[in-house]
Amino acid sequence: MKIRGVLFDKDGTLIDFFGLWLEAAQKVVPEFIRRNGFSGCEDLENALYESIGICDGQVDPNGALAYKSFAEIAEDIGRVLEKYSLDFDKKRTEDQMKRMFEKAMQGEDAKIVPLAELGGLFEELKAREICIGLATADTQKSAENCMRKLGVLEYLDYLGADDGRKQPKPAPDMLLDFARQNKIQPAEVLVAGDTRNDMLFAKKAGAKSAGVLSGVSKEKDLREYADFIIPSVEEIPKLLDALEGEI
């Protein structure tokens, strides 16, 4: 079946994950401890980093920071706080995470670095009459701001994010919304992402998946789950050409 829509993950797929999220996390975790009066708890900072998938400055491709929503991250943090017998309110923690990460990623020193010449890529997809969407665990506000800063927001036919209503990936909600709004079938969608979670997201909706190696995952992490593996989203047009040739 012809691909009529490409649904992109954001971080690690369209923009550099490490320069944005890892650096933001290294600001947010100490701030979270300070703001909540947890500063006297030994080893809490390391435990919180590990809970979101950061160990010794390295990101776990299957850890929370790589793919989870803020609500899910709050749950992971809550389990750590409970072990330390510290007060935990899930909604308050989720709200704090959202606000602090948004602040860290929208500051003047935030590093929003594209992993391809996105304007050219999106222009080419539009020329092929392919719908373009974004499906991210980031908040709506942060995702829109990021795409606007990169000058590509206008190309998007759909922007799915953490809005408190749709279930996060790998639940198929955002993909089904993307397909429905653009009057295409889920099987006509190609998901491009850098995590196993993105590949499961595609599979649950009956879409195709392209794992990219520009983010947190290595080929071995994606091999079992992705229909295709490519170095970066720059290869999407070539992949589409190859798929066209199979029809």
Automatic annotation (TrEMBL):
| Top-level taxonomic group | Bacteria
> Keywords on this record?
Hydrolase
Q: Name one GO molecular function term.
A: hydrolase activity
Tell me which NCBIfam families the record gives: HAD-SF-IA-v1
Q: Output this protein's name.
A: HAD family hydrolase
Q: What is the lineage of its organism?
A: Bacteria, Bacillati, Bacillota, Clostridia, Lachnospirales
